């Protein structure tokens, strides 16, 4: 019981928080949190710094990296700007995530991720629209909780795909850009020959004629 | 339920401000500013200047204390630092070292 810590809604901590137990953050922490137990960030909670723990549940706002030895779940309405690394990651519909999402630890999800990545490549342009769509659907989640709950497992399945989709376009885009760059240079290499508007000596001829 | 609980395994390095009750069973270093009661449990350790409405010490506190209402040092509690508060009680069995200013 006393191993469980709570940072209340009106509490603000500027500094680092470390410990062995579990932690619930309803207030504000400006600094890093490193726990051996679970960390719950309530929907009013804000953290500007990294969070580390056995498993994390995020419903509030985080500007920093999340790392868990077991799992991370991002609830609807949460806002995460930073990298997310854990063996199991769940991102609910209506959550906003900006950063690298990486599942590591278990081989099974890794294989699933590879196939998901291959599938997700054509869907890459949808990535930029994803946060907006998430926010928009956030409103509907409140009015219709049942379908959203059903969609959560599907989303957790899809989340590695989304994760890959997020870093895939970057890695894909770079070589593509490299390819494109020399190509465009090649097309430019034979520069248009400088043809004088008036042929050499033409003006002299004109002058001579005029005379 | 108390607003903020620093559990036994938890340690905070830095600045803590709160408008609600703060209960410390763990370790806190830095400064504490609270609009309500700050209580330090028997296992709690605070190495910080404390500014609060009132303070109750059953653990160890090292730092200067300013309380708008009262400071209670309970039996087994330990406070090293200056105290500025309208009321101060020191229970039998408590240890205290510092100056007291009750002129507020």
Structural write-up:
The complex is a heterodimer of chains A (211) and B (104). With 211 residues, chain A is of the alpha/beta class. Helix content of chain A is 40%, strand content 30%. Chain A is built from four helices and 15 strands. Chain A has a 15-stranded parallel sheet that branches. The model of chain A is unreliable at 107-181 (pLDDT under 50). Chain B has 104 residues and is mainly β. In chain B, 0% of the residues lie in helices and 65% in strands. Chain B is built from no helices and twelve strands. In chain B, strands 1, 2, 3, 4, 5, 6, 7, 8, 9, 10, 11 and 12 form a twelve-stranded parallel sheet that branches. The A-B interface holds A 2-23, 27, 31, 35-37 and B 1-22, 25-26, 30, 35, 41, 43. β2 (12-19) of chain A pairs antiparallel with β2 (10-18) of chain B, so a sheet runs across the interface.
Explain briefly what this protein structure is.
The complex is a heterodimer of chains A (211) and B (104). By secondary structure, chain A is of the alpha/beta class. Chain A is built from four helices and 15 strands.
Brief descriptors of the model:
heterodimer, A: 211 residues, alpha/beta, 15-stranded parallel sheet, 40% helix, rod-shaped, B: 104 residues, mainly beta, twelve-stranded parallel sheet
């Amino acid at each position: 019981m006393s191993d469980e810590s709570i940072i209340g809604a009106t509490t603000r901590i500027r500094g680092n928080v470390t410990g062995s137990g579990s932690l619930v953050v309803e207030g504000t922490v400006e600094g890093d949190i490193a726990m051996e137990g679970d960390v719950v960030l309530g929907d009013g909670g804000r953290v500007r710094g990294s969070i580390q723990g056995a498993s994390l549940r995020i419903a509030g706002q985080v500007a920093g990296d999340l790392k868990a030895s077991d799992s991370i779940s991002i609830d609807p309405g949460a806002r995460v700007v930073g990298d997310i690394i854990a063996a199991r990651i769940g991102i609910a519909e209506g959550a906003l995530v900006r950063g690298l999402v990486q599942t590591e630890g278990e081989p099974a999800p890794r294989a699933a991720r590879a196939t998901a990545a291959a599938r997700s490549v054509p869907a890459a342009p949808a990535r930029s629209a994803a946060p907006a769509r998430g926010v928009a659907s956030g409103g509907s989640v409140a009015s219709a909780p049942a379908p959203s709950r059903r969609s959560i497992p599907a989303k957790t399945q899809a989340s590695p795909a989304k994760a890959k989709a997020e870093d895939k376009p970057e890695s894909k885009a770079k070589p593509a850009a490299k390819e494109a760059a020399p190509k465009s240079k090649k097309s430019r290499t034979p520069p248009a020959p400088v043809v004088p508007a008036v042929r050499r000596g033409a003006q002299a001829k004109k002058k001579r004629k005029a005379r | 339920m108390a607003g903020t609980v620093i559990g036994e395994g938890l340690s905070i390095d830095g600045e803590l401000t709160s408008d609600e009750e703060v209960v410390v069973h763990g370790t806190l270093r830095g400064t504490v500013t609270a609009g309500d009661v700050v209580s330090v449990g028997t296992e709690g350790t605070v190495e910080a200047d404390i500014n609060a409405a009132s303070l109750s010490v059953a653990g160890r506190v090292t730092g200067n204390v300013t309380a708008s209402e009262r400071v209670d040092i309970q039996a087994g509690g330990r406070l090293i630092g200056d105290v500025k508060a309208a009321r101060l009680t020191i229970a039998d069995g408590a240890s205290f070292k510092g100056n007291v200013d009750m002129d507020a």
